[in-house]
Write a structure and sequence with these properties.
Length: about 425
Amino acid sequence: MEAKTEPYLTSHPDANGFFGPYGGSFIPPPLQAQMDEIKTHYLELRQDPQFIAELDEIRRNYQGRPTPLQYAKRLSESIGGGGETGVEIYLKREDLNHTGAHKLNHCMAEVLLAKHLNKRKVIAETGAGQHGVALATAAAYFGLECEIHMGAVDMAKEHPNVTRMKILGAKVVPVTEGLQTLKEAVDSAFGAYMADPVTAMYCIGSVVGPHPFPMMVRNFQQVVGEEAKEQFLERTGTLPDHVVACCGGGSNAMGIFSVFIDSPTVKLHAVEPLGRGPTLGDHAASLASGSEGIMHGFNSIMLQTPPTITSSAPTPAPVHSIASGLDYPSVGPEQAYLRSIGRTETGCGATDEETVQAFFALSRTEGIIPALESAHAIAWAMKVAKDAVERGERTRVLVNVSGRGDKDVEYVVEQYPQLVTVV
Ligand SMILES: *Cc1c(COP(=O)(O)O)cnc(C)c1O
């Protein structure tokens, strides 16, 4: 009898949350007990028809799903594709999901889970504020308290998101320790959670953190891939040749990749922020330049500062990206795993400069102002499509437009005034 290969998604991660060597759970025992509770209930609820129906109803009638799949005709033509060439770029429009990004997909599901666990409150950290806003939205919808920990430096920088969280009824806790940014916010939020683990649930904002979060968040984001695959097949009669998504923690990428992993003809591209250049501290390309290490409760590939004479323990390196949603010194364990087995492509990245070019390209050919995070994916997709045109190959590229760019317009106008002016 022929050996049956198990579909990838049902066999990954393993029972302990490992994707090959990556993932797992490296946290203190009291926190582990909480993660085990979340996992047990999640594994039950994901089979529960009532939970599934509730989530489905929310996605349709609150979030506005399914989001459209759009053939980007003018963008394709702008790189020499379209028409006879058969080189086509398609956009999965997560910018049209409620709140303007994909993050709400897992936040609604996480807070629904919290409600089923009889929690009264959700706690999280946020860097630029995008996760905080999505979680505050979900908490308002379900009527749970929401407490967001945010570095004081980030609060000043990302003031509009602080205002949004407050309007939505969330309590924003300023963190004034250390550098007053994301790392300190994580510590502060963990501390608050440990003080109140029975009534509160910790909600992670990407496919990172200890098991079961990388698995759960991927599964909650899978709706993007399921919709996109069905829409793509309906439209073209085939699967895409390439699927492209930007990669910070890796949640929007895992969402759209997940349903194509078992289809070997589909090339998967997780596009990393190459920032200002290859020097450590100038980018956040963890997959391309990182090494194995444990941070925030999981084992993965991370950007680390080399050990010194006084400190042998590697620590997360400073990172930079024009897109604040991508400047994380590590990456979800499943992204690390897929890269290590060669299932995702290597060398996928976009510099700040290329990203801003793509931001304007999509705005002016399609009338879509993308988030700077998503503009990384657009930049890479244009490159993949252009290469195909040059080789005379018919190619279809599917890109996840993870979010809209309203939050970024002021920054772009300040930093790139010469690109804004039409002459
Ligand atoms: C947060 C964010 C990202 C990066 O997160 P992933 O987990 O890598 O998807 C990408 N795009 C947008 C619009 C975001 O807000």
